[in-house]
Amino acid sequence: PTGAHLVDLWLEHIHRAEQPAASHEQSAIRTWATASTLGIPGFDYDNRAACYGWVYKRAFQHDTTLGHDYLKKLMEEKSPSFGYSVLARILSYTPHSLVITTNFDHLIEEALRRYGFSDPKIISEAVRAGSINISTETDRPHVLKVHGDIFSNTYNKHDSIFRLAPAWKRAIRRI
To answer: pLDDT for 45-59, tens place per residue?
Structure first.
């Protein structure tokens, strides 16, 4: 699911936990979900997807491990769509061999292995961003995952997704 769809799922989850006797129709959630009730500064239901990081934090405030496990389960056994096969071919057979993404799933890597016949270099941690050297490592595609990787560490809270780590900033500027 998209980040916007996840926000809707998490708002429903929070609503059910805090208002168990209430209707859980979208109209009821819309009325209930305000900046005040959620404790999310500037929250506007019509622009709720922009608050992904805040809603994630609110939904899993007691145990962020549950949030990570939830996302991991959603991504189990997912396969890349047609668009990923085209991207894999471009990354493997043209000079365009770099992806910078906020996605932490494995769809790009899976597509590269299936359709591009390439084993990509994956960098998903800011501490490793300094090792990126696209100009000398042209033998395989690079996937830079600035919000982490689902099988190690992901960054979903508002304070970690709106501020790019300095190591990522330096690496991306070099590229």
So the answer is: 999 999 998 999 899
Residue type, 51: C
Q: Could you say which DSSP state residue 143 is in?
A: E
- Give the three-state DSSP class for 139: coil
86: left (phi over 0), alpha (psi -120 to 50) or beta: alpha
Left (φ > 0), alpha (ψ -120 to 50) or beta: where does 42 sit?
Answer: left
SS3 category, 76:
coil
| Phi, psi dihedral angles at 67 (to 5 degrees) | -65, -45
E strands in 14-157:
98-101, 121-123, 142-145
Average pLDDT value for residue range 109-137: 81
* pLDDT tens by residue, 124-168: 888 888 777 766 666 789 899 988 888 887 787 777 777 788 888
pTM, 2 dp:
0.81
DSSP element (H, E) containing 30: helix 26-32
> What phi and psi, each to the nearest 5 degrees, are found at residue 47?
-125, 35
HSE at residue 87, side-chain half, CA atoms within 13 A, is 19
Amino acid sitting at position 110 = E
> Which of 38-52, 71-85, 120-134 bottoms out in mean pLDDT, i.e. has the lowest?
120-134
